[in-house]
Amino acid sequence: MMSDFRHALRLLFKSPGFTLIAVVTLTLGIGANSAIFSVIDAVLLRPLPFVKPNELVMVWGKSADLPRESQSYPDYTDFREQAKSFSSLAAYTQASTVLGSGENARELEGVAANSAIFQVLGVAPMLGRAYGPTDDTPSGRVVLFTYDAWQRYFNGDPNIVGKHVRLALREYTVLGVMPKGFQFPIGVESEYVMPIHPLVGDPMLRRGARFFKLLGRLQSGVTIRQAQAEVSSIAAQLARQYPDSNTDRGARLVSMHEDLTGNVRPALLVVMAAVLVVLLIACANVANLLLARATARRREIAIRTALGASRSRIIRQLLAEGFLLAVFGALGGLLVASWGVDLLRAIGPQDLPRLQELGVNATVVLFTVVTAFFSTMLFALVPALQATRPNLNASLQEGNRSGAGPESQRLRGILVIGQVALSLLLLAGAGLLIKSFENLRATNPGFDPTRVVTADFVLPGGKYSDAEKQRQFYERFLPRLAGLPGIEAAGGARPLPFSGGDMSISFWIAGRPDPGPANHYDGSHLTVAGDYFRTMRIPVLAGRAFDSRDSRDSVPVVIINQALVAKFFPNENPLGQHLLIDGTNPPKPAEIIGVVGSSHHDSLAIEPQPEYYLPLSQNPARANHLVLRTSLDNLAGLQGALRAAIREIDPDVFVPKVVPLEKLINGTLAAPRFNMVLLGCFAGVAMILAAIGIYGVIAYGVTQRTREIGIRLALGAQRVDVLRLILVQSMSIVGIGLAIGLSGALFLTRWMSSLLFGVSAHDFIVHGLVLFLLAGAGLVASYIPARRAMSVDPVVALRYE
User: Fold this and answer.
1) Model confidence over 156-184: pLDDT tens digits?
2) End-to-end distance of the chain based on CA atoms, in angstroms?
């Protein structure tokens, strides 16, 4: 066996051009597969970094309108006390706070969770202790920092446990530090963990306030199906017990891993399929090279056979050459994969779970080795079998001629057909994603984000817990902002479009029959402040915007968007009518004073939904998103002006960093852009490889038919006839590949429907352009060797070999 490899190595070194082309081709195919597999491994295959992660499940609420909805804390308490399928069940919500005060303040992102979270996750602090039920009370103010936050803000102080820190201007006791590498929720920057009650307060723990996520650990031996049956029964009981808030509400269990990866799985599998196609095309190219090489060695193989070498012995020798090529390709592929992983981390969407965990680990190396082995079987076995089949006498009688038999030519043609068909599949998929992305990017969000900056603004709870103080601060602050140089308009909203938040409170319409609590209309709402509509350039279509008339003591008012008008007031004037908004008992009627244009809230791919707007003056809160329309290009200068304006009013308020609103919108386009770029790159590589394959087959065919072409020219054939002959032969192969590829594309691209926006999987224009592009590439690849055939000298050709 070693002698086979030594001989194979010598032969490869004797043909450096062939070896280099084959190795580079395999390096691209194997490297791309290894890089994308590293993403599949980190996101889809690698278990979550918790104890027995297969036991972790999310418990979502569900209704007719929302298949996945957060839960209320009272509902959580009922699930925890009644469900026997869980060994522990925790509630949590993402949170933010400010560490310190004044110039040294730092904004922190974290999670507020009840004490059961440590049992559910199976983690304990590295230093200190976890908080328990006695700490999770309205008066309990304790916190645990993550390892990175401990290093970043406290220089790894070993005596941090027991010390006091100021969070949102309140004193908190540090209970401990979480282990290095701890991150919860997965994929979200988290710098601290604290109890729920001190953060949200009693008013937010009502049964109708649904903003908690529930994470449970199943009892040993309990399946998700069994637990689902139990929580469904409990949800049905809660619907009967609390009809005002829980009618028609159910519960849905999903494994934590599936919940984390469900949205990205289809796109990743499509990309993985694409790189496998690239590998197949690369293998077909190398197989064509090996076929040409084996054909040229037919006489050598025939002589070895005549001297007694068995067919299996010769096949083993040829496979050894193929295996060495695969090994070199795998080594190069690992290098390409390491570069590719760095690139994927840089360009990948930040909401891709576990993006920063990508790496070339032992699993990726094993995958690369297995890929190299199967690649050898793909590109080396068939040429080896083909090369050892020629008739011994015929091969010996050929002298020095290396003419290829019809079977070899047929096989090479089949490989090219396969390359063209697979390339068309990739190009069609990439074309659909490109058109889909362009449709998304061209979608009007319903407002003008140009030159609008935003800042996530939160007043410290220790100083602004009173609603009146919150109102007074914004009444002073927003006019001060609007007067800054370069600021054209200033406002605020909670939640801001494309900020990742949403708030929904049901309502019904005064003067119409009450449909009952279970049938009140769902509607997202935004609490806005200042000159929000002018800042965002959301048109006021009827009535007026909020102004100084809408104060705390005036009649409650509301503004609705055009989508709400179309759904609930299709043939009447909504101005002057009243919405009865749930949340108070009895609900106060809010007069509709204006209608504004509809706008997208979470995604450009989702049509604008019915929304209503409330004035902050009548609905104050500590948290708000500032929005500023500016004529300034220097954001650093704007940041300084914002800081100075806040310091004049209250030096204890944290000054947030301003971010262009367009950056938030672009963040929602990151995933479709990532899918488009990857598939487009792989499709381009596939087309190039296919064109090289076409060129190789036609060029080799021209070489083998040099004598025939010379005879045709000697007998009076015109050179244009030779050109036509070669092009017809090559384009017939390309045409068959295009027909097969188009049929496959029309069938397989249906699986991409969930990734598309505003374009059908059977889009005629996209498929037509792809056919034209690939046919053009095939024509160019065919024309070069055909042009060479036209220049054959009949006299030289007749003496050829």
Assistant:
1) 999 999 999 988 888 899 999 999 988 88
2) 36
Strand partners, 610: none
Alpha-carbon gap, residue 697 to 284, rounded angstroms = 11
Tell me, rounded to whole angstroms, the distance of Cα 327 from its chain centroid.
Answer: 32
Q: How far apart are CA 579 and CA 699, in angstroms?
A: 76
- Return d(Cα 794, Cα 789) in angstroms, integer: 11
In this structure, what token pair is assigned to residue 479?
């006019």
With a CB cutoff of 8 Å and minimum separation 6, the contacts of 495 are 501, 502, 503, 526, 625
The number of C-alpha atoms within 13 Å of 390 and in the hemisphere containing its C-beta is 31
Give residue for tokens 């049509």: 607
- pLDDT, tens digit (0-9, with 9 covering 90-100), for 253-263: 999 988 888 77
pLDDT band at 155 (very low <50, low <70, confident <90, very high): very high
Closest to 110 (Cα-Cα) out of 145, 58, 154, 156: 145
Distances in Å between the Cα of 699 and the Cα atoms of 206, 229, 409 are 77, 66, 12
- The C-alpha atoms of residue 426 and residue 681 are separated, in whole angstroms, by 10
pLDDT at position 204, please? 54
Nearest to 456 by CA among 495, 502, 503: 495
653-657 contacts at long range (C-beta below 8 A, 24 or more positions apart):
653/459, 653/460, 653/473, 654/98, 654/101, 654/105, 654/107, 654/458, 654/460, 655/105, 656/107, 656/455, 656/456, 656/457, 656/458, 656/626, 657/455
Between vectors from CA 672 to CA 666 and to CA 674, what angle results, nearest 5°?
90
For residues 737, 740, 745, 747, the Cα torsion angle rounded to the nearest 10 degrees is -170
Whether pLDDT at 795 is above 70: no
Task: Tell me the three state secondary structure of residue 616.
Answer: coil
Residue 166, classed as helix, strand or coil, is strand
Which pTM does this prediction carry? 0.76
Three-state SS at 355: helix
- Decide: 24 and 289 in contact? Cβ < 8 Å: no
pLDDT digits (tens, 9 = 90+) for 421-477: 888 888 888 888 888 888 888 888 999 998 898 888 778 777 777 788 888 888 888
Characterize 317-337 residue by residue with b for buried, 16 or more Cβ atoms within 10 angstroms of its Cβ, and e for exposed. bbbbbbbbbbbbbbbbbbebb
DSSP assigned state of 263? T
Give the tokens for residue 613.
Answer: 């707007």
What are residue 167's DSSP bridge partners? Answer: 99, 170
What does the alpha-carbon distance between residue 532 and residue 478 come to, in Å, rounded to a whole number? 10
